[in-house]
From TrEMBL:
Compartments reported by the entry: Cell membrane
TM segment ranges: 23-44, 64-89, 138-160, 166-186, 247-272, 284-308
Signal sequence bounds: none
Protein name (Swiss-Prot/TrEMBL): ABC transporter ATP-binding protein
InterPro entries membership: AAA+_ATPase, ABC1_TM_dom, ABC1_TM_sf, ABC_transporter-like_ATP-bd, ABC_transporter-like_CS, P-loop_NTPase, Type_1_exporter
Length: 625
């Protein structure tokens, strides 16, 4: 990506500028104060020239004092304006980055699992933090420098031309030199900025993997290899950063050289103008001050154009995330859909935007208040109808022609070999993915026809990997039900067979759980995640192979407690151990994404070869053990 590519399109920066709209007033005040600062700074060189020509040359002490006091007042006004302008610019940019970070985070949370997997966690962290900071920094520069520099440049040119049009031509020679310097540095640095962000992503990924996998690294004595991997990633980032900084190191010396040459030219030719009587000493001093202001403003604008490419790279990375259109969306209410379809008609009819919003709200409220004619209880909690599913990047179906039902109070288990599609099947119920063919129904309604929040409110989901968050035991359980009482938490822990070890912890429910639950065992983590699902008392329970980390006794006790306490709920279990699901009302046997058998254990033992093989292999393993 070269300089031409940068100037060919700044859509990303323009697109993100909408986040400044809530801060319009603050930005306007900052610009106004910057304008005041600029006027005072432009007037000071003229006062200084008058002080020399009238006060010092004319030996007028009163004029010197009056002019000096005026210069002090103007300097104070300039200082206050500069401080206040910087404060408001910082406030606007901080609010901008806060809202932008929030939107990026919200967008990531709303991505489907498949879309989320297109981005690595490390790059999402970098985009939400470092990239937003890059844009915030350039925004502060633009609100301050990009406003004052053009004003200072134009004001300085006007004042120099008014002093001596001929001498001001020297400035014209300096501008192309600065332009060439800026263009050359931009052309070299822009591709490196992109590589810097990529290397930073890789470094974050390497660090995250080494920290989360520290137990495995130590178990296999791979500390040296892990350190070397991180050192290599760190060295790559350091090398690319050094290349960028070496290029940027030419900025200030180059600009100062051009500025010094210009001032030398002004002094050289200005001396002849003084000898000829066309300029006074005060005028030449003011002229030098204006030339300095002009070149300094150009130098500041050059700094923006140098650092703007890095911000543009960051903006591209952020808009890439914000621009993802989630495939899994909540359904549009019928009234809203009708209003959208009739939007063009409304415009032709002369309706205002406010009128349309009022009508849209009224129709939506009427739709939401319509009575439910058929009770959801008359339908099975879960029903699959000829469901087929495949990942977007895969041409082969993971699941094919799957049909079954889970009735209230019924426990349905799913078993099969590795890669048979067990986890993919249960992920279709909470709509982590959408089916390619067929229909998944919850309480008789297609999961695509209800909002994701309403759908998932009915489900108590326990993932295959036990995920806990940093905080207390109570905090983690209340992820399932925010308003859960202490008694409800203890009851959920009792059902999940977790109450005994929690009581033995130093602070009970207030005991601290580290990120990922690294300070407790795998079985304890698993039981806490089950308690988190139980506390919300959902209509549907989904367990994704959560009992493998438990011993056989705890497994059996937990299943008995679950069966006793949640009799009216539908339970869908994925398991590897046959002993875990042997008592299930119905067992679905998957083989290469297809149903090889369905029914209770006794029936499958008679007529399902795949199930018989799974049972035989596990019995053999237990016997060998």
């Amino acid at each position: 990506m070269g300089a031409a590519a940068f100037f060919s399109g700044r859509d990303e920066m323009i697109e993100l500028s909408r986040y400044l709209k809530p801060f319009r007033v603050i930005v306007a005040v900052s610009i106004l104060l910057t304008f005041v600062q600029c006027l005072t700074q432009l007037y000071l060189p003229t006062l200084m020239g008058d002080m020399v020509d009238v006060g010092i040359v004319g030996k007028d002490m009163d004029f010197i004092i009056r002019t000096g006091i005026l210069m002090m007042i103007l300097s104070a006004v300039s200082m206050v304006s500069s401080i206040a302008s910087g404060y408001y610019a910082s406030k606007a940019s901080a609010g901008f980055s806060k809202n932008l970070r929030q939107d990026v985070f919200t967008k990531v949370e709303n991505l489907s699992m498949e879309e989320f997997e297109n981005f690595e966690t490390s790059t999402l962290v970098t985009r939400t933090t470092n990239d937003v900071n890059q844009i915030q920094n350039i925004l502060i520069m633009m609100l301050r420098i990009f406003v004052i520099s053009p004003l200072m440049f134009l004001g300085g040119v006007i004042m120099t031309v008014s002093k001596d049009p001929i001498l001001s031509l020297i400035i014209l020679a300096a501008i192309p030199l600065l332009g060439l310097l800026i263009y050359g540095i931009m052309k070299k640095s822009m591709p490196l900025f992109q590589k810097t962000q990529t290397k930073l992503d890789h470094l974050s990924l390497t660090l995250r993997e080494r920290l989360t996998g520290v137990r495995v690294i130590r178990a296999f004595n791979k500390e040296d290899a892990a350190n070397q991997t991180y050192l290599d990633a760190n060295a790559d980032l350091t090398d690319i950063s050094l290349k960028v900084n070496k290029i940027l190191a030419y900025i200030m010396p180059g600009m100062m050289l051009i500025m010094d040459l210009t001032i030398i030219g002004v002094l050289w030719f200005g001396g002849y103008r003084i000898q000829s009587g066309d300029l006074s000493v005060g005028d030449i001093m003011a002229f030098i001050q204006y030339v300095t202001l002009i070149l300094f403003s150009l130098a500041m604008m050059a700094m923006i154009f140098i650092f703007l490419p890095r911000a543009k790279v960051s903006a591209e990375r952020i808009t890439e995330v914000l621009g993802v259109d989630p495939k899994i969306k909540d359904p549009i209410p019928a009234a809203e859909q009708k209003m959208e379809n009739n939007a063009e008609w409304a415009k032709k009819a002369g309706k205002t935007e406010k009128t349309e919003k009022i009508e849209k709200t009224e129709k939506t409220e009427k739709t939401e208040k319509l009575p439910v004619t058929v009770s959801e209880k008359s339908y099975p909690p879960i029903e699959f109808k000829e469901v087929s599913f495949r990942f977007e990047k895969s041409g082969k179906n993971i699941l094919e022609n799957i049909s079954f039902t889970v009735n209230p109070g019924e426990t349905v288990a799913v078993i099969g070999g590795t890669g048979s599609g067990k986890t993919a099947l249960i992920h279709l119920v909470p709509r982590f993915y959408d089916v390619n063919e067929g229909t998944v129904l919850v309480n008789g309604r297609d999961v695509r026809d209800v909002t994701q929040a309403d759908l998932r409110q009915k489900i108590g989901y326990v993932s295959q990997t036990a995920v806990l968050f940093s905080g207390t035991v109570a905090d983690n359980i209340r992820y399932g039900k925010k308003e859960a009482t202490v008694d409800e938490i203890w009851e959920a822990l009792r059902i999940a067979q977790a109450d005994e070890f929690v009581k033995k912890m130093n602070d009970g429910l207030d005991s601290y759980i580290s990120q990922g639950g690294t300070n407790i065992s795998g079985g304890q983590k698993q039981r806490l995640t089950i308690a988190r699902a139980v506390v919300r008392h959902p209509e549907i329970y989904i367990f994704d192979d959560n009992f493998s980390a438990l011993d056989y006794k705890t497994d059996a006790d937990l299943r008995r407690a679950l069966k006793k306490e949640i009799r009216s709920a539908a339970i869908l279990i994925v398991a590897q151990r046959v002993s875990t699901i042997k008592d299930a009302d119905k067992i679905i046997v998957l083989d290469n994404g297809k149903i090889a058998g369905i029914g209770p254990d006794a029936e499958l033992m008679k007529n399902c070869t795949v199930y018989q093989e799974i049972v035989a292999s596990q019995q053999l393993e237990e016997g060998t053990a």
